[in-house]
Design brief:
The complex is a heterodimer of chains A (about 190) and B (about 280).
Chain A: H1 13-32, E1 35-36, E2 43-44, H2 47-58, H3 60-78, H4 84-100, H5 103-107, H6 113-143, H7 147-179
Antiparallel strand pairs in A: 1-2
Chain B: H1 13-16, H2 19-35, H3 39-56, H4 64-84, H5 88-93, E1 98-103, E2 106-109, H6 110-136, H7 142-148, H8 153-182, H9 193-224, H10 243-265
Antiparallel strand pairs in B: 1-2
Helix pairs in contact in B: 2-6, 2-7, 2-10, 3-6, 4-6, 7-8, 8-9
The chains are: A mainly alpha (about 190), B mainly alpha (about 280).
Chain lengths: ~190, ~280
């Protein structure tokens, strides 16, 4: 199989399964794993680190749907109603990381300094768009909440998520790349 | 598996509706209550959902934990809104009837109270609806229902895979976390924040490896069975629509149309008794 020519937009059986299992991971980490943060009564959202990793591996469509399904299921089971503004923001985050993060390199088992920089630029942009633009704007449109409140909430969420994704996501990528044999080390015989 | 979505099987007209109907009604009504801020409409929907609660035979004490959580969340969000913008109501309704002055820039106005009433009503019509949906719909029906309302079956299959693997992944996470904690990986506040995040990765990594391996196995198995070859597939949990189902969908759709048309009648999203 020639991974290099595999399109970013192709949805094969593996992508479907990755969406399902990725959403299950997102759900479990988001719903049941509470890691205390320095701010009282808030916990660290580690699921976005994993979402970024999955999106970088499986592309924008998988990232988008993992965020959408995972977050929707969390809202459904938590009982606070479905907050479409934040569900959609999660989907946008997954989509953007999949689009901007370089896909083939990670699947190939190549993830060096360049990959790490690329991955982190992607996740910072994606978090900023999702939490500082999409979520607050939708909150204002749907719920007519005060602008300064939702933008502050969004900015706090963005900063916290960027930091956790930078640490968790990058470490996951490095560890994963070490595990997968570097496919470019093999050459086809002429 | 613990009851993840709080499904309570009972014999009631609401339980007898197909999952697809309830999902369609949930989506239609949640969009209806999102588009408008008309107080009368929101109050109507709220009353309707409470009546449905009665019909469904779900008792309030069975969903007490969910409701309590929701109540705290609602109070907190309202407080936050007031702290950040005590004049939000005045801005939205374009009038100002002051009741009393509290301190600094915090005054109590009729418009602000009315705005908060609307925000609370938005919760009150949305949250019981979601709780009603999860407690009367069998999770195994989700995927079939999604397909029924027009979502591509491959995506529905992803949803059903997610529901299938949530308990497995939950158990796996628990096992890994406990065995690593026994080896001295600290996750509580005793550890510094950065170290704590690194420790999470120690737990996450085995979880990711097994999940990636699982993706490989499951997708191979599905490919061997020619998943995705045909345009359509059938579902074990799918049920045919009954007249009651069609009635519920039609009523929900009409309510959505009503909420959209109210935006034109009121000349905006708000029902404004002040001007």
């Amino acid at each position: 199989m020639n991974l290099k020519n595999k399109s970013l937009w192709k949805v094969d059986v593996k992508t479907i399964v990755a969406i399902g299992i990725g959403a299950a991971l997102f759900f479990v980490l988001g719903r049941f794993v509470a890691i205390p943060s320095p701010v009282p009564n808030t916990t660290i959202n580690i699921q976005y680190g994993v979402l970024a990793f999955m999106a970088a591996c499986f592309g924008p469509i998988a990232g988008c749907l993992i965020g959408l399904i995972g977050h929707f299921l969390i809202d459904l089971s938590a009982g606070w109603g479905i907050w479409w503004s934040w569900v959609i923001a999660s989907a946008v985050f997954g989509f953007l990381v999949g689009l901007l993060g370089n896909r083939t390199r990670l699947a190939w088992g190549q993830f060096g300094k360049k990959g790490a920089i690329n991955f982190n630029i992607a996740q910072v942009i994606a978090h900023a768009v999702a939490w500082i633009v999409i979520a607050p704007v939708l909150d204002i449109l749907i719920y007519s909440e005060p602008a300064n409140k939702v933008f502050l909430q969004g900015a706090v969420a963005a900063v916290a998520n960027i930091i956790t994704t930078a640490i968790i996501g990058t470490l996951l990528c490095f560890a994963w790349a070490k595990l997968v044999p570097d496919k470019s080390s093999l050459k086809k015989e002429d | 598996m613990t009851n993840l979505f709080n499904y309570i099987p009972k014999d009631s007209p609401v339980h007898k509706l197909t999952g697809a109907t309830k999902l369609a009604a949930l989506l239609l009504l949640s969009f209806a209550s999102m588009t408008t801020f008309d107080t009368r409409f929101l109050a109507g929907i709220t009353i309707l959902t409470f009546i449905m609660f009665g019909v469904s035979k779900i008792r309030f004490r069975e969903v007490k934990a969910l409701l309590w959580f929701t109540f705290v969340f609602m109070v907190l969000n309202n407080l936050l809104i007031y702290l950040f913008e005590p004049e939000q109501g005045v801005m939205l309704y374009g009038a100002r009837h002051e009741i009393c002055r509290l301190f600094g820039r915090y005054t109590l106005t009729q418009e602000q109270l009315f705005y908060h009433l609307n925000v609370i009503l938005k919760y009150l019509c949305m949250i019981p609806l979601v709780i009603l949906f999860v407690s009367t719909t069998n999770p195994s029906e989700f995927a079939a229902s999604l397909n029924r309302i027009g979502v591509n079956y491959k995506i529905c299959y992803a949803v059903s895979l997610a529901l299938r693997y949530i308990p497995d992944i939950q158990r796996e996470y628990h096992d890994i976390s406990i065995s690593l904690q026994a080896r001295g990986v600290e996750m509580t506040k005793k550890e510094k924040l950065f170290k704590r995040l690194k420790n999470i990765v120690t737990i996450l990594f085995p979880l990711i490896i097994t999940s990636m391996a699982r993706i490989e196995t499951v997708s191979n198995a599905m490919e061997l069975r020619s998943f995705g070859k045909n345009k359509k597939r059938t579902w074990y949990e799918a049920r045919p629509f009954l007249p009651a189902d069609i009635a519920v969908i039609v009523v929900s759709a009409l309510l959505l149309v009503l909420s959209i048309s109210l935006n034109f009648v009121n000349g905006g999203r708000f029902y404004n008794p002040f001007v």
